[in-house]
Amino acid sequence: MANKEVPFGLKITPLYEYLQNQGGSFTGFGGYYMPVNFKEGIISEHQAVRNDSGLFDISHMGEVRINGNEAAKFLNYVSSNNINKISDNQLQYHIILQEDGGVVDDLIVYKFKENDFWLICNASNKDILVEHLGKILDEKKFDARVIDESDAYAAIAIQGPKSQEKLEQALSEKLDDIKYMRFKDVNQFYVSRSGYTGEDGFEVYGSPANILEITMKLVDLDVKLCGLGSRDTLRFEAGLPLFGHEMSNYISPVQAGMNFAIDFNKEEFIGKEALVAQRENLEEKIYGMELLDRGVLRQGYPIYDGEENVGYITSGFMIPGTRNSYATGLIKTNYKNGDELEVEVRNRRLKVRLRNKRFL
Amino acid sequence: MIYYTKTDEWVKVEGNKATIGLSNYAVSELGDIVFVELPQVGDEFSKGESFGAVESVKAASDIYMPIGGKVTKVNEELEDSPEALNEDSVVNYLIEIEDFDVEELEGLLQEDEYLKDK
């Protein structure tokens, strides 16, 4: 069967050995060797999260601290969103921008207190992000520091309608007072009500040893182990973008329809001019679509209106447990929901109908 | 006698017909199969040519002819129940062909040889 050795050059998380013993099937992702799925497969993991509870190792994600007297000012300069709108112990979604409006990374900010934040970033972008932030600190001389704390922490996400009761049992602590996008300290963990699945759920950060221990407790409470495969189908079904798909160095948050995370009222931030120009004259944007023929649409497949190539697919799945096949695509803006286009799949044209991009 | 390709297809010759499918190893690596794209009866393919594709939740994979031939039957059950491949992809064949050349079986792998590297 599959090679159990860690491929050269890939890192592992503190849960690796345990997840390997639990039957995980692993692949390289963002520089880490991570489980794609466990024995019963992606469909059963997807359904566990929708109907009960599932657990994801998210230790590969980066924890980058920003602190110092001008940490908030610095963050507001490099990011689309406005950190001054949240309170201590609150979370906020941010998009770190290039000058041209493309995305360096999208991330969740945890605010510990005034001028003390954690940026939770994509594994594959962590080094790029730290370098980007360091460069701007050097140029603009903000009184702030950027500290990569990723190696000190492990993290898991517990997602699904039963996640609260299971996590409360595992922590022996009530969690009612943690509202959506808030966090607090619970027995040596940071626990936030947040996630990337469209379900209620929590993300838990702690020392590698503590995270391993609580993971084992949760699995004993029948929380289903889930891999990157179902993480992707769940986020997709819930209409959440994934860096490298619906947003990227080349696809801006305006094109991705993420305007809720852009504060155009801020006087200045990197990429503002480009985004303002796009907002006024947007040529391409991300649409959702339903595949009317049988099949599955994958990233990169070209989209046609007659003979004209009008865009390409950014993500696509048959929703686990259904025969509904949906996709997102970057397409010229002269179409509206309900319009029909074609996608080329292995030299055949399949019909799609445009719609919103939340498929739940 | 069942023969395998390095690209994870199998072929079984019975008289003047041969059935073709995917190895159970390949299917277990792909995970949950959600769609199978198969050719039409009457289509002709040569050895090594792609005759269809399987889609798992996470990826699409082309399927290649272990030997050339003309399609006489496709397993239509897979249209409604692609997950049958996850149960047993040797029992649940993909296509049946005729007009093939048995000499093209040469160079294909027997089951133990095929499984040796897996």
**What assembly state would you assign to the polypeptide chains in this entry?**
heterodimer
* Proportion of strand residues of chain A: 25-35%
Number of strands of chain A: 19
Structural class of chain B: alpha+beta
Quickly give the structural class of chain A.
alpha+beta
> Helical region count of chain A?
8
Order of helices and strands of chain B: EEEHEEEEEHHEEH
Spatial order of strands in the largest sheet of chain A: 10-11-12-9-3-13
> What's the overall average pLDDT of chain B, rounded?
95
Radius of gyration of chain B: 13 Å
Largest sheet of chain A: 6 strands, mixed
Quote the average pLDDT of chain A: 97
Write down the overall geometry of chain B.
globular
How is the largest sheet of chain B built, in terms of strand order?
5-8-9-3-2-1-10
Q: Would you mind describing this structure in some detail?
A:
The complex is a heterodimer of chains A (360) and B (118). With 360 residues, chain A is of the alpha+beta class. Chain A is 22% helix and 33% strand. In chain A, the strands form 4 sheets. Chain A has a 6-stranded mixed β-sheet with strand order 10-11-12-9-3-13. Chain A has a 6-stranded antiparallel beta barrel with strand order 14-17-16-15-18-19. A 5-stranded antiparallel β-sheet of chain A has the order 5-6-7-4-8, covered by helices on one side. Chain B is α+β, with helices and mostly antiparallel strands and 118 residues long. The longest helix of chain B has 7 residues, at 24-30. Chain B has 4 helices and 10 strands, in the order E-E-E-H-E-E-E-E-E-H-H-E-E-H. The radius of gyration of chain B is 13 Å and the shape is globular. The A-B interface holds A 1-2, 25, 36-37, 41-43, 229, 232-233, 294-296, 298, 317-318, 320, 325, 346 and B 29, 31-32, 34-35, 37, 53, 55, 57-60, 62, 79, 86, 118.
